[in-house]
């Protein structure tokens, strides 16, 4: 099967890796190449194809290995794999690289709900140290003065803005945003369906029909076409005999005829997959569950508070409206601030902290997700003020596009003033 390597991808990796094996006087070469982009665009697979084409050996680390119940293990693992790769270069006399897949998943911080552990700090610090001293990488508890061979590091991820900023600065990490254009997609998809008899024109039409889908979509589409034959096979032998027929069978593995790879059939199956994607995006059942659980925890929430101007415009009887406003947990000023935050397109989070942790800034989130509705924000804030009556409670406005905080306001202090 002839897989397609995007020229831009090949050029970027080849230049970065080769440059790290050359001695360029007076030139500071970044050790790390960070390849980032949206999910499913084949970043890791393109890297594998480049390594195979250039005859490069690769030492792999998964983002899932960057956390451990024992503090320091992931950082030691990175140092150990780096030293092993340097030894491979020396022994085999060929280019080798260290590759960390999904670095942001293992060492990134996506929002205030993501824990920033000791291991996360050590992983970031270790990569920074290796980038600054690539020929002097020691294991904890031992020291070897013999200089190591420089090992290029390739890391992949979806969103590098979640990583520690000093790690991704220029000089340590060179960034490459991978977003295949139409020609790249046509070439990659042609490699996926190369054995299925589709013409170049049909490949282009398939790509244009699902122009907004990632590269992995087309690979999953090809796999889905085989579902019909597998379903027929299961019904023929019976559900009870599938295990006996497929695993350790004396008859050998089952064989299947080539399925229907016509363009119309592919488009029909692809549209079903797109419909399933949309169901996932629109269901948002977790929000419903969270609202339900909050209702169970807090029994009955106070009714929505009318706007301040409505309170002032209604007639007053013996100061009853003034009495009602003063008894509310959420003041009218805070309600107005909530409205202003949401009107600007921001989302709201609520955090709490006790007096001891307040001095270290160790705030914890009161809600599981960011809030974008006024009634939900007021209800959640009321509940948080009641539950954490002896703690600090603050309101946080978050810009979802820039993924940063724009406002942090303390609503309640331990003496219950708000």
TrEMBL record:
It comes from the Bacteria. The keyword Transferase does not apply. InterPro entries: ATPase_AAA_core, P-loop_NTPase, RCA-like, RuBisCO_activase_AAA_helical, RuBisCO_ssu_dom, RuBisCO_ssu_sf. Keywords: ATP-binding, Nucleotide-binding. GO terms for molecular function: ATP binding; ATP hydrolysis activity. Residues 311-327 have a biased composition (Polar residues). Residues 293-327 are annotated as: Disordered. Residues 322-414 form the Ribulose bisphosphate carboxylase small subunit domain. Gene3D superfamilies: 1.10.8.1070, P-loop containing nucleotide triphosphate hydrolases, Ribulose bisphosphate carboxylase, small subunit. Belongs to the RuBisCO activase family. This is Ribulose bisphosphate carboxylase small subunit. It comes from Dendronalium phyllosphericum CENA369.
